[in-house]
Amino acid sequence: MKPSKVVLAILITMALLIVARRASQRQVPVVVETTTYGELTLSHTCNHVFKGDNTTADLDVVVSGGLVPEDVVIALYYEPRTTDATETSNREARVEAITIPGHGLVYQVAVPNQGRGTEFSYRFQLEDAAGRILATIPVEGSKDKPKQLWFRFEGPRSAILLIVHILCMFVSFLLMVMVLLTAFEDVKNRAVRIRLAKQTLWATIILFLGTFPIGIWLEYQVYATYWTGIPFGRDITDSKALVIFIYWLVMLYLLKGSALSNDPRKDVIDVTAVRWVAVVGVVLSLALYLVPHSSGSF
Predict the structure, then answer these.
(1) Residue ranges of domains in the chain
(2) How far apart (Å, rounded) are the C-alpha atoms in residues 217 and 212?
(3) Where are the beta strands (DSSP E) in the chain?
(4) pLDDT (tens digit per residue) in 3-59
């Protein structure tokens, strides 16, 4: 491939990955919940994620407008998070918040680390000595299904492993773009077809390395799970990565003669289908890259 086309492929790849990165990043917004009781205003900031194997979830309630009555407590209720946090057989824990010295009217509960990947739903309740609920954070939507906040513990990930993962994904996508550019050349030419097949071969190999051994180990470092996509789970991040890899593996099989033995006669598909198989592969890969990470089930 001409140097000018390699440079063009790099520029296209960088542009596409920047767009895909911005579109696919699912940001968990910080939530600020407030409630009132008489002249008091209680507020809580929920960051959702707590990183580190030994970190605790420090959950604060800030009180303004006066002092909390002596016979009133702020209590945290939390339990393992499920699809519907109100329908679980797990017993919720209750911990009373304590004031933080030197921080005014700030009440805090430190929830012990429950392990990487664990999630909990929670709420605060302002209660009197008789156990009556005076106010809640967040404010209840209804008595039958009270609103809940949630937090998740995540482990630290290796910076080096993350960099290698990103490089693998960049190089594999660069090779995919090169496949696309090559596909619009004269694929009837033996040398061009072999070059396209070799690009497909290396794109598949590097995609495999970045997605599976490296990607799976990163997932374990953060969530303590190795694979949560199909066929063992329904996480969309793992599932879409598997779909992309399977397509390129099939494409490699279709071009096995050119890729492995430099003999286009041993390819499974004829020359007229090569271009469209390559175009569909790149478009499919980009479309799936645009799907936000951890955005649901698949």
Answers:
(1) 3-26+157-289, 38-154
(2) 8
(3) 31-37, 40-46, 49-51, 57-64, 72-80, 93-96, 98-99, 106-111, 119-128, 133-137, 149-154
(4) 888 888 888 888 877 776 666 556 678 899 999 999 999 999 999 998 888 888 899
Distance separating the N- and C-terminal Cα atoms of the chain: 38
6: left (phi over 0), alpha (psi -120 to 50) or beta: alpha
Alpha-carbon dihedral sign for residues 252, 258, 262, 266: positive
Asked whether the beta carbons of 24 and 290 are under 8 A apart, the reply is yes
* Structure tokens, 19: 């767009």
Tell me whether the omega of the peptide bond preceding residue 292 falls within 30 degrees of 0, making it cis. no
At the fourth CATH level, which superfamily is domain 38-154?
Immunoglobulins (2.60.40.10)
- Give the pLDDT band of residue 195 (cuts 50, 70, 90): very high
- Please count the CA atoms within 13 angstroms of the CA of 115 that sit on its side-chain side: 5
Q: What is the pTM of this model?
A: 0.80
Burial of 184 (0-12, 13-18, 19+ CB in 10 A): exposed
